[in-house]
Amino acid sequence: MLKFTSKDFKTLPWKNGGGRTLELFKQPHLRLSLATVAQDGPFSLFENIDRHLVLLKGNGIELTFPDGKIQKLENPYQVLRFKGEDQIHCRLLNGISEDFNIMVDRSWGKADLQVKSLVEGQKLHLEKCPLMFIYQIQAQVLLELKAEAMDLEFPGAMDLLIIKIRQV
Q1: 3-class secondary-structure state, position 46
Q2: Could you report the per-residue pLDDT of 84-136, keeping only the tens digit for each?
Q3: Given 8, 11, 72, 111, which residue has the most CB atoms within 10 angstroms?
Q4: Which residues contact 111 (CB under 8 A, 6 or more apart)?
């Protein structure tokens, strides 16, 4: 198990120049990051990338897709999935928001995401998975697991994002 904390993360400008991202983990085909969305505007385009957004803080965002469909990400820990090549316009819903972002090259792999709230003393049972990440939201700690099935115990109550990556 590898543990990443704020000293391991990198702050980078957005591809479209509209903001900054805190990059938590990056490989050629996979990226995990936190983004602070502070203004309306277009999303950056990423060909052949599947994206997952999870609202962590703020009132959320409204995304308008090329076909005119509108989707709101407005509830804490709500998840939204979409294609990185879609030309999407983002509108803030009453103030700055922060989201967790998963980007996977779809020709390489697939991400599955689960949000889990643990109470104090609760153990987390994890099934076998070739590559898995657990993001401790309040602590801003990322764990990388290449694991057999296991049980983990965390100190105190906390909210977790569990990201399972499977190659195709």
Answers
A1: coil
A2: 999 999 999 999 999 999 999 999 999 999 999 999 888 888 888 889 999 99
A3: 111
A4: 30, 50, 52, 102, 104, 163, 164, 165
